[in-house]
Amino acid sequence: MEENTLMKRLPLVTVLITVINVAVFFITEWNGSTLDPDYMIEAGGMYAPAFFGEHEYYRLITHFFLHFGIEHLFFNMVSLVIFGHVMENAVGRLWFAGIYMISGITAGLVSVTAHLNQDAQIVSCGASGAVYGVMGAFIVILIINRRNNLRREILRFTAYVALNLYYGMLYPEVDQYAHAGGFAAGVVLCIGMYLIKRIRSIRKERVM
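Given the sequence above, the corresponding structure tokens read:
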């Protein structure tokens, strides 16, 4: 394989996001305890009173680069690597980065809004909302591309998502609002991507 081809297929955005998450975790852990909710609020976790009361909107981004403990980080990074490299090669680095970031932001917004009406003391952190966005986009790609092994792959990844939802039911602290918000954002963004590409393709055909 030529070097240029290898560089194109290397999921640089996925690797970069993973490295940033790992680095942020160890820096945060070095300065305190990532299992301490009060400390995680100071670090930039999503927290309704700070977001709405203090207008600290930067938390929409910082919260999905923070994790509660090494297990939380590990699980999310494994999920990111599983779906990230496939998605990045399928849609391109720019679209993948956009889907990841916007899904993470949407997840945080849905989460903080939902928790405002339930319990303002909840602190939300983790990349899972963004990762669920990547999962949602991946399922859209499977359906639109109509691959030969479509049925098997949809069942496999639907089962993966279902297991995550079941895990969340067993552990109430898991933020299902963030997962749902991120997943929905990924689906909508991926559909939008295909519509934009289709419109551009039609315009090119008309020009030619």
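The chain has a mean pLDDT of 84. Try to locate this feature in the token string yourself.
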